[in-house]
Design brief:
The chain has helices spanning 14-25, 46-51, 70-80, 93-117, 119-122, 130-153, 166-180, 189-198, 202-206, 210-214, and strands at residues 5-10, 32-36, 59-62, 65-66. It has 224 residues and is an alpha+beta fold. A four-stranded mixed sheet has the order 2-1-3-4, with no helix packed on it. Helix 1 (14-25) packs across helix 7 (166-180), helix 4 (93-117) runs parallel beside helix 7 (166-180) and helix 6 (130-153) packs across helix 8. It is globular and about 50 Å long. The model has no long low-confidence stretch (mean pLDDT 96).
């Protein structure tokens, strides 16, 4: 099964990491994979463009089926391999609804995080404004407080109840990204507890971004 899968990925990319965690949880180790460098522009290579014409990673192929959107790939893997590995979609209707809500809500979280972390990369120098930086940080702070509140009100250790689900597969890499860029653990205790409780989970540890093991993070979010 896994031998028919190919993943082109970049280290540290939350979307790539999501797919890798899902593959680990479904016991689909041994898939074909290739680590590419964003810095060298390898995500725009012919090899990637042939699978993902957007020139983005991940580029994921399962048999003849191509799924380049990470949420789509995670849902596909769970639905195609329900009987093996970790069950990632709860049976309980309330928990299932919460799982889907948190999965797709994470897209807003990712956008607001990117608006802060990649501001100088995305916005030309002549168009940058301190007011925009301040506004983006305020929006991200409000977003993080929302997730802190979700965890505080939750009925278990995970985002959608008492078991690890696709919500955690999808959201955890973004949470880890916050801490990679200097988010203060003491400021958001529930978020920090969630991060620390999952970072040594086998699927997460096995797929931890190799570049993060080799270098220090940044302090971009120290004041958020």
């Amino acid at each position: 099964m896994a031998q028919d899968m190919t993943l082109l990925w970049g280290s540290g990319s939350p979307p790539c990491w999501r797919v890798m965690i899902a593959l680990e949880e479904k016991n689909l180790q041994g898939y074909n994979q290739k680590l590419l460098s964003f810095e060298k522009g390898e995500h725009k290579s012919k090899e990637v463009m042939a699978m993902n014409p957007r020139g983005q990673l991940p580029a994921f192929k399962c048999g003849k089926n191509v799924l380049n959107e990470s949420l789509a790939a995670c849902l596909y893997l769970e639905n195609q391999y329900k009987s093996q590995g970790t069950k990632l979609i709860p049976d309980c209707p309330a928990e299932q609804a919460m799982m889907y809500q948190r999965m797709f809500e994470s897209l807003t979280f990712s956008q607001k995080m990117g608006d802060v972390i990649y501001y100088t990369y995305k916005v030309p120098e002549g168009e940058r404004h301190d007011s925009a930086v301040k506004r983006n940080k305020e929006a991200l702070t409000a977003e993080i407080k929302l997730w802190e509140g979700y965890l505080q009100k939750g009925s278990g250790s995970f985002l959608a109840g008492k078991t690890f689900s696709l919500a955690d597969v999808v959201v955890f890499p973004g949470i880890a990204y916050l801490y990679r860029f200097g988010l203060c653990e003491e400021r958001y205790p529930k978020l920090a507890a969630y991060y620390n409780s999952l970072k040594n989970r086998p699927s997460i540890k096995a797929s931890w971004p190799p570049t993060w093991l080799e270098s220090q993070g940044q302090d971009t979010l120290k004041d958020v």
